[in-house]
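U., I forgot to send this yesterday:
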Amino acid sequence: MGIREWWHDRVYYWSTNRQLLRLLLRKVDRIMATQAEITQALTDAKSTLDKVAGETGALIIKIGALEAVIAAGPALSQELQDAVAAVVAQANAVDALCPDPTP
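Result:
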């Protein structure tokens, strides 16, 4: 093998490896960008779930206060009793979707 062939082989080898390296670096960049996007989406979803949990807890407290006021007051119509029961049932269903934090 002459110097010309040897040099050609080396240039071709490094040229091919550079192309592969560039391709691999582009793939790594895309994977890292995708992971960053997923991380941000999960962080946003967690924030939303925390907000919903806080609002649900506040709603359940207000419903409890309403039940106490109703229990201390005069007799209620059947329609109002049914409406309160429906709200309590819905609040309990929503509360069941959000597990209570473990100590």
